[in-house]
Amino acid sequence: MTAALETRNLTKRYGRRTALSDCTLTVPAGRVVGLVGPNGAGKSTLLQLACGLLTPSDGDIRVLGERPLGGSPRVAFVAQDTPVYPGFTIAEHLRLGARLNPSWDAGYAERRIAALGLDPAQRAGALSGGQRAQLALTVAAAKRPELLILDEPVAALDPLARRGFLQALMELTAESEVSVIMSSHLIADLERTCDHLIVLRDSAVTVAADVDDLLATHHRLTGRRQDPAALSGGRAVIDQRHTGVQSTLVVRSTAPIDDPGWQVDRLDLEDIVLAYLTEGPR
Amino acid sequence: MIWLTWRQARVQALAAALILLAVLSAVAFTWPSLTDAARVSGFAACHGDCEAAAGEFSALVATRTAILVYYAGTALLLLLPALAGAFWGAPLVARELESGTFRMVWSQSVPARRWLAVKLAGVGGGVVLLAAATSTAMTVWAGQIDRAYANRVEPVIFAARGAVPVGYAALALVIGVLLGLLLRRSLPAMAVTLLVVATVQLAFPVTVRPLLADPVTTVSALDLSAESGLSLSVDERDGSVEALVDPGVTGSWVLGNRVLTAGGEEFTGPMDPTRCGLTAAHGACLAWLGEQGLRQEVRHVPAGRFWALQWREFGVLALLTGVLSGFCLLRTRRRNRGAEAALTAGAVVLPPAIPRGA
Amino acid sequence: MIEFHLDARSGVSPYMQLIQQVRHALRLGVLREGDRLPTVKEVVARIAINPNTVSKAYRELEYEGLVQARPGLGTFVTRTLAADAESHRPLRHDLERWLAGARAAGLDDESIEALFVSAFRAFQEARP
Predict the structure, then answer these.
(1) What are the residue boundaries of the structural domains of chain A, listed by start?
(2) ipTM of the complex
(3) Contact C47 A192 (CB under 8 A)
(4) Do β-strands A196-201 and A32-36 pair in parallel, antiparallel, or remain unpaired?
(5) Are strands A196-201 and A204-210 parallel, antiparallel or unpaired?
(6) Which residues of chain A have a CB within 8 Å of the CB of B122?
(7) Each residue of A168-181: pLDDT tens digit?
(8) What does pTM read for this prediction?
(9) Which of A61, A156, B163, B184 is the Cys-Cys partner for B353 at CB 3.0 to 4.6 Å?
(10) A253: alpha, beta or left? (left if phi > 0; alpha if psi -120 to 50)
(11) Which residues of C touch A256 (CB under 8 A)?
(12) Subunit contact A268:C9, Cβ cutoff 8 A
């Protein structure tokens, strides 16, 4: 199966500033993939390169096995802040989608708008942030893409609107074969909605794994102060903190930890991601 | 795509339709009064030397509503390019870039280049249509007035008649689009467009039009009779002279008008103080001037060249429009520079995500 | 029909949470043999969860023999865990005796819980 997104040494420069340097990663197809990383890690740039809105300065990028081209019917994009035309009505947005996309699914789009309880005659400028995001998602999804790319779609939404958006997105993935790549700072959201997670830091992939595996293999160890090297093999220390008397470690281990010297705790996804991001300089 | 272009430009289209309607109704409304004035003054039936009839016609028109239409229509045609550039051209791409909607519309199944090409063609077509209709109406309607004023080939009226207004409007539109693409903000793009279009309109008659016009140079013996309107101003200190004389070419666009000496130099004096001084006998100075063999050189574009010059200038403007349009498309196609620059601006500090209309 | 919920901060993966909730419902007798579990789409629409996660949890439950998927109809409970409560009585008795001993030894509630959890984990991880 071809990867949804594959890059090799991908680099993007704006004049003298480098937004993405030497990024090599593979995003599997048929999955919902979360992309996390601090601001400036190059997430937005990577996603816009994948949509063909930008062209790479260097390196190679393949989307669904092809070089990305702006205006591809196979890829849909929901941009940051979910821009819509404030002067257009909802119906006119759907008409725009129908006119500009040969693969447009008008029935789906109308059903979605009806299910959201939105009035097609309403101007998009009068919509709430959540409704606007839903409209942008509808326009992107009714294109019936093979790959849907979302750049921080819920960042500006209140919790209720965010939940509504993610429900709509998950329903979409349940009823179609679409691959999804979504960047977000809200790791708790990604934990429930994504099955694969990529942590990007300084353009480099720090970790890329299935969410279930990440949760199953990462532990927090707390115990008397000691050298982490004392841990037996097959375990990687991701993050370590020491006080005068205590050591706190985040370790990745596929084997169970039965050392009585350590108290072993579970970590949620956010703690795991933070451990990878605060890990000493690469 | 055509629907989208129409949907986004329909307010401007309505404005254009209203402008056109106003022009056509004003022209139609004053047409009887204008033809009546031409008939009553005898100017309509006059051929050949019609100076007296033209004067009478002009005086008559000046008292009627038609004169307002004449000035308003001419002013409209002179301002139309700037309006088209600033209000239709500049926001065309800039508004999409500043509101971020380009990210939405460029991720539909239409390449950005085709998107811009259709928008340019659609809005450009509208502008060309408006300019052509207005200019045709004014050129036909003001035909008699232009004949009476004999100034059709002069810079101001020239740019408001015939094919040239269409060329300026189209060029201004593309200038607006290009500046919007480069500046990425509607308001600055509109302001700079106004400035650039005004500069082009002022600079063209001074720099390019004389080159296109291929002016005629005539040299004749200086007419010293009273009708020639000769006036001499003498500098008291060194006796140097500035000679001014009527060009004597009606209906032409005069580019140069000099008095030359017998040797072909520009005549600057000095004059013989004994015959032209304050104490000299009456008429002695004229006689002295007559002895100098002075000649008058006039460089001008005759009225008959009007249409030839119109089409040449229109051709140059159309060519410029084409080149700039190509540049706009190339910039959009090759690199989506506008988008990249918009991102560069936004990527340094991530803008606070405030839901619009929330 | 049961309703699922997700605890984002538990560190337990979402699919495991779903499995635990079904098992819990079986133990408490909330779910009985023949009951239908919500469809993947229903779960997804209610708690905004990845559909693959729900399918994975249902597959796991099916593997454990607790539920069975009937194509076109849904996923149905095939076995209940509630009956086991009766057979747990002697074990519970032993545990209560142990707790009384711990209290007599001067341990407070928190120490008892920590001791139990750490012993249980060690036991669990030594014999997965």
Answers:
(1) 5-202, 216-278
(2) 0.83
(3) yes
(4) parallel
(5) antiparallel
(6) none
(7) 999 999 888 899 99
(8) 0.83
(9) A156
(10) beta
(11) 124-126, 128
(12) yes
